[in-house]
Design a protein that fits this description.
Elements lengths: L2 E8 L2 H13 L5 E14 L2 E15 L3 H11 L7 E5 L5 H12 L3
Antiparallel strand pairs: 1-3, 1-4, 2-3
Helix pairs in contact: 1-2
């Protein structure tokens, strides 16, 4: 089973907490790292914008990604939220096994 890292930015702690709770409660992710303050600079509707955001770094498995996107989009206030995944090509084998086992376990 292919493990992935998912990056999601949010506008604040309230939105982050909601998304974290939903994804953990639904056993779609094994864990999340929260970087509470990042500065984002980006193009939006023809202008360069700057925002203070939170960055969430989730660990999961590839076959859960579509469901994760669906849940996040329902709760996220952005018109087009950042939800991107990267394959984990290598890592501590015990840690990768823990990700798979956690996401695939029953409550």
């Amino acid at each position: 089973m292919k493990c992935i890292t998912i990056l999601i930015t949010t506008p604040n702690q309230k939105v982050s907490g909601l998304i974290i709770e939903q994804l953990l409660d639904n056993k779609l992710v094994s864990c999340v790292n929260v970087i509470p303050a990042v500065k984002s600079v980006y193009w939006w509707k023809g202008k360069i914008c700057k925002s203070k955001e939170q960055l969430l770094i989730f660990k999961s498995i590839k076959n859960k990604f579509k469901k994760i996107v669906k849940i996040v989009k329902k709760s996220h206030p952005y018109e087009i939220p950042e939800i991107v995944s990267f394959d984990i090509s290598d890592g501590n084998s015990e840690y990768l096994k823990w990700i798979v086992n956690t996401v695939n376990s029953r409550r």
